[in-house]
Design a protein that fits this description.
- The protein has a single domain, classed as Farnesyl Diphosphate Synthase (Orthogonal Bundle), CATH 1.10.600.
- The protein has a two-stranded antiparallel sheet with strand order 1-2.
- It is globular and about 50 Å long.
- The two termini are about 25 Å apart.
- It is mainly alpha-helical.
- The model has no long low-confidence stretch (mean pLDDT about 95).
- Bound molecules: geranylgeranyl diphosphate.
- The site of geranylgeranyl diphosphate (GRG) has 16 residues, from helix 4, helix 9, helix 10 and helix 11.
- The site of geranylgeranyl diphosphate has 16 residues, from helix 4, helix 9, helix 10 and helix 11.
């Protein structure tokens, strides 16, 4: 199967956006809270997690459209995490996805609620009979469990908590791995696993998706750290970026930028080897793995 990645991503993004629109439509009577939720949801994200969920289903021979409700739930959870992460009590950021952050537009209280609303709407989707359609109930239950577990204190929330607590610590590789496997990696991995579950993957195929997911989750974080570093180095006028990395809980800080990049590339190669066994339907996952390390934003 020949797949043009740019075209594939654009087409999948369009499908996801249309489904998100259907699951959280504009409604004049929805008030400010709905406007705040939609503001961040439609601010122009890459839709990476939903696309991975659909590609995971596809890679094991399933129909990606049957995983769409779960893909949308993943994007809502991801968007909620970004809104909360940007708050003054956390990262205190003014811009996200190229526009002012949610709390800059709607105020802090409303931004907290917009995040809460998106997380709750994700749970509605994962358990809504109309969203789930005629899927075997046990598959839908398992996928919902995997996604919610990954979002919670054993996954993304736990990773964010560890990151907060580690702020004053000297960075080391074990701590960086611990934080990022949970904060970013867990939801990325769950996207693939849930896609596979919904498509009825057997044990071996599911395990391949999970092992692929763990590796690209970490590679994604490394790429994100390196992109941040390039931005910081530009802003601070540092030649290599190595100085800009110092003291932060990031891969470039503990490994140095060059070794961090090598590690990311090794993880991508391992991920690609793991899914090679799934054959041509896994070709999009192969391209997505390479895209993750080579992306520019
Ligand atoms: C507040 C519970 C809670 C969790 C926050 C994910 C997270 C945990 C914080 C985000 C901090 C951050 C920028 C981490 C780096 C990796 C990351 C998640 C980047 C943003 O994801 P993209 O690049 O964003 O997929 P888009 O906007 O394209 O969806």
């Amino acid at each position: 199967m020949s797949v043009d990645l740019k075209q594939y991503l654009a087409q999948r993004r369009q499908m996801v956006d249309a489904a998100l629109e259907a699951w959280l439509p504009a409604d004049e009577s929805g008030g400010v809270i709905l406007k705040a939720m939609r503001y961040s949801l439609f601010a122009g994200g890459k839709r990476l997690r939903p696309i991975l969920c659909l590609a995971g289903a596809e890679a094991v021979g399933g129909d990606p459209r049957r995983a769409m409700f779960c893909a949308c739930a993943l994007e809502m959870i991801h968007t909620y995490s970004l809104i909360h992460d940007d708050l003054p009590a956390m990262d205190d950021d003014d811009y996200r996805r190229g526009v002012p952050t949610n709390h800059k537009v709607f105020g802090q209280g409303m931004a907290v609620l917009a995040g809460d609303g998106l997380l709750t709407q994700a749970m509605v989707l994962l358990t809504d009979a109309a969203a789930v359609g005629d899927l075997p109930a046990e598959r839908a239950r398992q996928a919902a469990n995997v996604v919610m577990r990954a979002a919670g204190h054993l996954g993304m929330v736990g990773g964010q908590a560890a990151d907060l607590l580690a702020e004053t610590m000297e960075p080391d590789l074990a701590m960086v791995d611990y934080i990022h496997a949970r904060k970013t990696g867990a939801l990325i991995c769950a996207s693939l696993e849930a896609g596979g579950i919904l498509a009825g993957a057997d044990r071996d195929r599911l395990s391949r998706l999970v092992r692929y997911g763990r590796r690209i989750g970490l590679a994604f974080q490394i790429a994100d750290d390196l992109l941040d570093l390039e931005g910081d180095a530009e802003t601070l006028g540092k030649a290599t970026g190595a100085d800009a990395a110092k003291g932060k809980m990031t891969y470039p800080a503990v490994l140095g930028p060059a070794q961090a990049r090598q590690t990311g590339q090794r993880l991508v190669e391992e991920a690609v080897a793991i899914i090679a066994e799934l054959g041509p339907p896994a070709r999009p996952l192969e391209l997505l793995a390479h895209y993750i390390m080579s992306r520019t934003h």
